[in-house]
Design brief:
The protein has 10 helices and 2 strands. By secondary structure, it is mainly α. The protein has 2 domains: 95 residues, no CATH class; 133 residues, Four Helix Bundle (Hemerythrin (Met), subunit A). A hairpin with a 2-residue loop joins strand 1 and strand 2. Helix 6 packs antiparallel against helix 7, helix 7 crosses helix 9 and helix 7 runs parallel beside helix 10. It starts with a helix and ends in a 6-residue tail after the last helix.
């Protein structure tokens, strides 16, 4: 099982603190992959593979949580220079993820490779949208699509250091309708005609799914907009240019 598939089994993984993610990485390496213990560098590699923020001092975290204490049991056991999960910690994680299904998203909604070399949280949103489409959860798919659009527009402005243009006096970002208008009218870039025409329709579908209690999205409606959605996603990701955005 690949690491990116494994973390889909973990409820709320993206919201966990970096230190909490270390526990799951040790589990993945020693239980799922069957390694005979691990070193801190292998944990660091897990953060790199998922392109997520690393814990500041992984060796110290492993060391401190391998010590016996009067108030808590150690999470790890150090043997022959390698770290293992302490049995009770392994059993705890077994219980948390053992019954969680793994939903592997397809490219039926849009090509997931569009989000390669972007950000881990964007890939997570994209996979959720794709899974919702695959499993017939079309309102949920519309809402996740709306979220993707909103995040990408905001990050387009942030990437070009003009995020202040899409914030109100209180410092909060505009609602999506105003974000779409701001993106289309911004002189710092040129948005293609197809993308400009498609964004309001994508936004409207997401709004209806999220806020209209009598509206239920249907597969033909999503299928009708799949081509336009791909154009919009690719254009925004191109404008942001994630690989060069540090």
């Amino acid at each position: 099982m690949a690491l990116d598939i494994f973390v889909l089994k973990i409820n709320g993984f993206n919201e966990l603190a970096p230190s909490q993610k270390i526990d799951y990485f040790v589990y993945f390496l020693t239980v799922v992959e069957g390694k005979e213990g691990i070193k801190s560098k292998e944990i660091e590699d897990c953060f790199d593979k998922l392109r997520i923020i690393k814990y500041s001092n992984i060796p110290l975290y492993l060391k401190n949580n391998s010590k016996k204490s009067k108030t808590k049991a150690p999470k790890f056991i150090l043997q022959n220079g390698l770290y293992h999960l302490e049995r009770s910690k392994k059993n705890e994680i077994d219980g948390l993820i053992g019954s969680s299904p793994i939903l592997i998203p397809t490219d039926n909604y849009f090509p997931l490779e569009i989000f390669d070399n972007t950000r881990g949280y964007l890939q997570s949103i994209a996979k959720q949208a794709a899974n919702c489409y695959d499993y017939g959860l079309y309102d949920a798919c519309s809402v996740m699509t709306r979220k993707l659009l909103e995040v990408l527009i905001i990050e387009t402005f942030e990437r070009h250091k003009i995020a202040a243009k899409i914030k109100g006096p209180s410092g909060f970002f505009f609602y999506l309708s105003d974000l779409v208008d701001a993106l289309s009218n911004e002189a710092s870039w040129n948005i293609g005609r197809n993308a400009k025409q498609s964004m309001p329709n994508l936004k409207k579908m997401g709004d209806l799914s999220a806020h209209n209690r009598r509206y239920f999205a249907k597969k033909p409606e999503l299928d009708k907009q799949k081509g336009d959605l791909r154009i919009v996603l690719e254009e925004l990701i191109h404008l942001i240019d994630y690989p060069t955005w540090k």
